[in-house]
Write a structure and sequence with these properties.
Shape: elongated
CATH class of the largest domain: Alpha Beta
Strand content: 15-25%
Bound molecules: adenosine-5'-diphosphate, magnesium ion
Mean pLDDT: 82
Low-confidence stretches: 177-245
CATH architecture of the largest domain: 2-Layer Sandwich
C-alpha cells in the first residue's frame, strides 16, 4: 500500500494555533495536489465533525459547528492514519474553540455512523473501505465487488461528555472576570478633531522620495487582501453563544518596532502587520459598553488574558479600536476586509510615529554626549504598542488592539498639538504644558533629521503614552 501521507506532520502534545494551522495547510495542500495526480489508487471523500453523544440521543451532537471535508483520501486508509488526518483537519478550529484548554489531556476517538468507534486492526488498513464496495452476483452466479465513491464517509472526532463539561467549566472561568462592569478601566471623555480630508493619502511616498531611498518601490498602506481574507476565513461558521459576547478569541498580529535605520532600509516594515506570525489570546470586552469616538475610530476598553505587549508593559488592560465612516451623520463601522485595511493603515502610522520618536531620543542622547545633560527634566514619551486582532469566534471581526492609556496613571487623555497648527496648545497643568512644548521640540528635530521631509502631528494621549499620530510629509 502506498503510504497515505509520506510525512504526516507530527504535532506537539498541546499545539498552538499557528502550529496546528501549518499542519492543516500542509495536509490540505497535499490532498488538493492528489486531485490531479494519475495512478489507480481508489479515493474517497470524508466529512468530519467534532461531536459528542448526548444521553438518550439517537445521533451524535456536533460541537460548535466544527466541521471539515477532504477529497482524494485513499479508500484503504487505516484507522491510525485516518484518525490523525481527521484530527489535523479539525484542530485549528478546535484550538480556537477551547481558548487555551490543554488539549493533550483530551482523549479523542474516531467514530462513524451510529457512534461506532473505529479501532486499529493488524495490519491497520481499510478502516472505512467496506462502505465503498458493493458485492453483487453476476448472471453466472459469481460474486463481484464494485467500488463506488459516490457518497462521502461521515466521521466523528469524538469527545466524551465529562471532557466536554470540563471544557465548558474552563469557559466559565475565562468569562467571569468581566461579569462586574465596574472592573473595567474607565474611558476618558470624548475628544474631537478636524482631520485632513486625504486621510488615506499616501504620505509615505513623498517622504521616501525625499529621503532618496532609491530602488524602493514605494510604500503602500493597503495590505494584501488575499492574505487578510485568508486570516479572516480561518474559521468556518463561528458560533458564539450570543449571551454575553464579552469574551473573544483573537489572532493578534503585533506591530513590530524598528529603529530609523531599519525603517529606511525596509520602509514597508509596518505596512502589513499580517505578514508577521500572529499570537493567540483571549480578550474580554463588553459590547454593551459605550465606546468613545474620535472623528474616525471608536474605542472600547478591554482586558487580555496574557500581557500582549510584555516588552512595553506588564499590563493586560487594552484599548480595542475600529474605524467608521459617516453616512448621513450616522457612524457606520467598516466591515471585514475594509476594516482590516483601515486598521492596517492606522497601524502603519503608529509604527512610523514610534520610530520618529525614537529618532528624537537618539538625537538627544548623541547631543548629550557632546554637550552634557540639560539642566531640566526631559519628558519620557512614546507611542503605545499595538497590533491587529482578528476575532476567531465572533464573526471574524477585526480590531486594532493597543495599550490602554489609563487616566489613573497617565492623567486625562489630551490633545497636545493639533493637526492643523504647529502651535502647542496652552494647558493649565504644568506637566501637560511641558509635554506640549517638548512635543513641539520633537517636531523640529524630526523635520531637521528627515531633511525637512516629515514630522509627526496630532500628538495626543497621556503623560507618557501617545496614540493616533498623523504624519505631515513634505511640509
Ligand atoms: N489607547 C487608548 N487608551 C484609552 N483611551 C483611548 C486610547 N486610544 C484612544 N482612546 C480614546 O478614544 C478616542 C478615539 O481614539 P483615536 O485613536 O484618537 O481615534 P480618532 O482617529 O477617531 O481620533 C480618543 O480620543 C481617546 O479618548
Ligand atoms: Mg484621535
Amino acid at each position: 500500500m502506498a503510504p497515505l501521507f509520506p510525512q504526516l506532520p507530527v504535532l506537539s502534545s498541546n499545539p498552538g494555533y499557528t502550529e496546528a494551522h501549518a499542519a492543516y495547510a500542509l495536509v490540505r495542500n497535499y490532498y488538493a495536489s492528489k486531485a490531479f495526480s494519475s495512478g489507480n489508487t481508489q479515493t474517497v471523500s470524508v466529512q468530519c465533525w467534532l461531536a459528542r453523544m448526548e444521553a438518550k440521543k439517537a445521533k451524535p451532537t456536533p460541537i460548535h459547528d466544527i466541521y471539515m471535508a477532504m477529497n482524494n483520501v485513499p479508500v484503504n486508509i487505516g484507522v491510525r492514519d485516518l484518525k490523525e488526518l481527521v484530527r489535523i483537519l479539525l484542530l485549528p478550529q478546535i484550538i480556537s474553540w477551547v481558548r487555551g484548554y490543554d488539549l493533550s489531556t483530551v482523549d479523542f476517538t474516531l467514530r462513524k455512523e451510529h457512534w461506532i468507534e473505529l479501532v486499529a486492526q493488524h495490519p491497520d488498513v481499510n478502516a472505512i473501505a467496506e462502505d465503498f464496495f458493493v458485492t453483487k452476483a453476476n448472471p453466472r452466479g459469481l460474486q463481484t465487488r464494485t467500488f463506488s465513491n459516490k457518497h462521502p464517509a461521515k466521521l466523528y472526532l469524538g469527545i466524551d461528555n465529562p471532557t466536554y463539561n470540563t471544557i465548558l467549566a474552563h469557559f466559565d472561568e475565562l468569562d467571569s472576570p468581566l461579569v462586574d462592569d465596574d472592573e473595567e478601566p474607565p474611558m476618558s471623555s470624548r475628544t474631537s478633531r478636524t482631520k485632513v480630508s486625504s486621510y488615506y493619502a499616501n504620505w509615505a511616498e513623498p517622504l521616501l522620495t525625499h529621503l532618496q531611498t532609491s530602488g524602493n518601490p514605494g510604500l503602500t498602506t493597503s495590505p494584501e487582501a488575499a492574505h487578510i481574507k485568508n486570516a479572516l476565513m480561518l474559521q468556518v461558521q463561528p458560533k458564539l453563544k450570543a449571551a454575553k459576547s464579552v469574551c473573544s478569541d483573537f489572532l493578534i498580529y503585533i506591530l513590530p518596532g524598528a529603529s530609523w535605520k531599519t525603517l529606511i532600509q525596509n520602509p514597508r516594515i509596518f505596512s502589513d502587520v499580517t505578514k508577521g506570525l500572529p499570537t493567540h489570546d483571549v480578550i474580554f470586552y463588553n459590547t454593551k459598553a459605550q465606546p468613545v469616538s474620535g472623528g474616525f475610530k471608536s474605542a472600547l476598553p478591554g482586558r487580555s488574558k496574557n500581557a500582549l505587549f510584555p516588552d512595553s508593559s506588564p499590563s493586560k488592560a487594552v484599548c480595542l479600536k475600529q474605524g467608521f465612516h459617516l453616512q448621513s451623520g450616522d457612524k457606520v463601522m467598516y466591515e471585514g476586509v475594509s476594516q482590516v485595511k483601515f486598521l492596517c493603515s492606522e497601524l502603519n502610522l503608529l509604527g512610523w510615529g514610534d520610530t520618529m520618536m525614537d529618532l528624537v531620543y537618539v538625537f538627544m542622547e548623541r547631543s548629550e554626549s557632546e554637550l552634557g545633560r540639560p539642566p531640566f527634566e526631559i519628558p519620557v514619551m512614546r507611542f503605545v504598542s499595538a497590533g491587529l486582532a482578528i476575532s476567531q469566534s465572533n464573526q471574524q471581526e477585526a480590531f486594532m488592539v493597543e495599550e490602554w492609556i489609563d487616566p489613573e496613571t497617565q492623567g486625562p487623555f489630551v490633545k497636545y498639538i493639533h493637526n492643523n497648527s504647529g502651535r502647542p496648545r496652552d494647558f493649565e497643568r504644568a506637566d501637560h504644558q511641558i509635554r506640549a512644548e517638548f512635543l513641539s521640540f520633537c517636531q523640529h528635530v524630526q523635520y531637521f533629521k528627515t531633511n525637512g521631509a516629515a514630522y509627526i502631528s496630532d500628538f495626543q494621549g497621556g503623560l507618557e503614552l501617545l496614540t493616533d499620530p498623523q504624519i505631515i510629509s513634505d511640509p
